[in-house]
Design brief:
- The chain is an alpha/beta fold.
- It folds into two domains: 45 residues; 203 residues, Aromatic compound dioxygenase (Protocatechuate 3,4-Dioxygenase, subunit A, Sandwich), CATH 2.60.130.10.
- Helix content is 24%, strand content 19%.
- It is built from six helices and twelve strands.
- The longest helix has 21 residues.
- The chain binds fe (ii) ion.
Length: 285
């Protein structure tokens, strides 16, 4: 019997799948339908709530464009993006933890000379970022590509303000030498709200949640023979560390931004962080 009843609802739906359905698709869909039906029974979803859900998802789709991905925002604020990251990036002990990629990385950023400034708009408090890229034994990794990006002093990425900020403002790619060191000048990042003028922002409002992310610098580090690392360093002391709208904070990524004497023209802040990359085929922790 494959008529749908309340009791056997998910079995009725899953029984329609063809025997030719690829194994992984079958596994994913069976579990999805099962959990979705359990959710509806659990909360006894009303018809009005079902209509609200359909309208919400419709608005979420309409909000998407080439420069705005409202579904990723939805995934982020529900903790889904971080959970997908967690189940896919179980790294050996001693490795630098990963965190969300976020929607603001761009390809084609120029490789800059080590030590160069990435701040092109002259705004914000200059900060020296420095450290090493290391393997699990503490040896330097030569030829690591360190791709960095942050918001500007107003809390916006260059791609959010193409008419205001210079292209590639607060972005750069640096390549380590034999000592594994990287250093460049950026700005001390500031906390910023995720775009909240759409349905996801409205949902956060209904839930009594703010849209802010604690200040952070993004890093994408790749090196031949090592696992790719996507992560941030977070500014210690930021008021939103405990309530990041997208749940991306991990304790080892919180970094002390040290205030320095800038009277000689050197950057006012310094943020030192060493990144540790496990080898490409290493086992999980
Ligand atoms: Fe960010």
């Amino acid at each position: 019997m494959t008529y749908l009843s309340e009791d056997g609802s998910h079995e009725a739906v899953n029984a329609r799948m063809s025997p030719q359905t690829p194994e992984r698709l079958k596994q994913v869909m069976e579990s999805l339908v099962h959990h979705l039906h359990d959710f509806i029974k659990d909360v006894r979803l009303t018809e009005a709530e079902w209509e609200t859900a359909i309208a919400f998802l419709t608005q979420t789709g309409h909000m998407c464009s080439d420069t705005r991905q409202e579904f990723i925002l939805l995934s982020d604020v529900l903790g889904v993006s971080m959970l997908v990251d967690a189940v896919n990036n179980r790294k050996p002990a001693g490795s630098t933890p990963s965190t969300v990629f976020g929607p603001f990385h761009v390809d084609g950023v120029p490789e800059r000379e080590m030590g160069a400034s990435i701040s092109l708009d002259g705004k914000g408090e200059p900060c020296l970022f420095e450290g090493r890229v290391l393997d699990l034994d503490g040896n330097p990794i030569e030829g690591a590509c360190v791709d960095v990006w942050s918001d500007n002093a107003d809390g916006f990425y260059d791609v959010q303000q193409p008419d205001i900020q210079p292209q590639h403002n607060n972005r750069g790619i640096f390549r380590t030498g034999p000592d594994g060191r990287y250093w460049f000048t950026g700005i001390k990042p500031v906390s910023y709200p995720i775009p909240d003028n759409g349905p996801v922002g409205k949902m956060l409002g209904h839930l009594g949640r703010h849209p802010y992310r604690p200040a952070h610098m993004h890093f994408l580090i790749t090196a031949p023979g090592y696992q790719r690392l996507i992560t941030h360093t977070f500014v210690a002391g930021d008021p939103y560390l405990e309530s990041d709208a997208v749940f991306a904070v991990k304790a080892p990524l919180i970094t002390r931004f040290q205030e320095r004497d800038a009277s000689d023209g050197s950057p006012k802040w310094k943020a030192a962080y060493d990144f540790v990359l496990p080898p490409e085929n290493s086992a999980e922790a």
